[in-house]
Design brief:
binds SN-glycerol-1-phosphate; alpha/beta; 8-stranded parallel barrel; globular; about 45% helix; 10 helices; about 15% strand
Length: about 250
């Protein structure tokens, strides 16, 4: 088991932004997954996230097993789309609280239901303030959660929401435009949230090029998550990795 939070904190302290690859087991065929992992052998990301709104536990376990077999040294965190997505083969689990919304089930209800199995799993639990940001269309996560995202021009609302998460003891904040978002989280909002926080900041949704990733990293993202674009074009990982390496020199 690799400790994931210290890895993210250390990189944030050193201002060395990380690249996380999100795999949605419900969306990626086995062939496509193997192709992506072969690219990842040459251009490894810093972390894999596995999960999605519609995938079942069996699919998730198969993906984690495939990751473990191909890239045994890379950390894997579950990004649960559902409270059943708990797999002790992974290293960690992002315990998401949807703090941009006012749906009590996603603020605390699901957590109560999952608490015992999370403790028994032995996974490193990463309490994460999860914030949906308006992104030009209704994303799966907005629809499934039945919550309204924070408007793109309300950076001060986003910053205060993120700060509240930190004061409540959460260890990470995740700004989410939603998978396949038309527009990623605006750099001005990333910057405003980063300025308000002492804990690491994750940004994802609609980031489909090295240029968009660089914008998010330069605005203050400590870790950028890319999913959809790599499902469509696994070779893109080489260029994303290059972009993170350029930020280390
Ligand atoms: C979605 O933030 C992640 O939850 C990644 O989004 O699939 O658009 O890269 P994409």
């Amino acid at each position: 088991m690799q400790a994931v939070l210290p890895l993210i904190r250390q990189a944030a302290d050193e201002r060395r932004p990380l690249l996380a690859v999100l795999i949605d087991p419900g969306k990626l065929s086995l062939n496509r997954l193997r192709h992506l992992l072969q690219v990842a052998v040459q251009s490894p990301p810093d972390l894999f996230l596995v999960g999605g709104s519609t995938s079942g536990l069996n699919e998730l376990q198969s993906v984690v097993a495939e990751l473990r077999a191909t890239l045994p040294h890379l950390p894997v965190a579950i990004f649960p789309g559902h409270e059943t997505q708990v797999d002790p083969q992974a290293d960690a689990l992002l315990l998401l609280s949807l703090i941009s919304g006012r749906n009590p089930e996603l603020l605390i209800g699901k957590h109560v239901a999952a608490a015992r199995s999370l403790r028994q799993s032995g996974l490193e639990i990463l309490p994460t303030g999860y914030m949906l940001i308006e992104s030009g269309k209704v994303t799966t996560v907005a629809y499934m959660s039945q919550t309204q995202p924070i408007p793109r021009d309300k950076s001060e609302v986003a910053a205060s929401t993120a700060l509240a998460a930190e004061l409540l003891g959460m260890q990470l904040v995740y700004l989410e435009a939603g998978s396949g978002a038309r527009w990623p989280v605006p750099p001005e909002m990333i910057h405003a949230v980063k300025m308000a926080l002492r804990i690491p900041l994750i940004v994802g949704g609609g980031i489909d090029s090295p240029e968009k990733m660089a914008l998010a990293m330069d605005a203050g993202a400590d870790m950028v998550v890319v999913g959809n674009a790599l499902e469509a074009d696994p070779e893109l990982l080489h260029r994303l990795k290059q972009c993170t390496l350029e930020r280390m020199v």
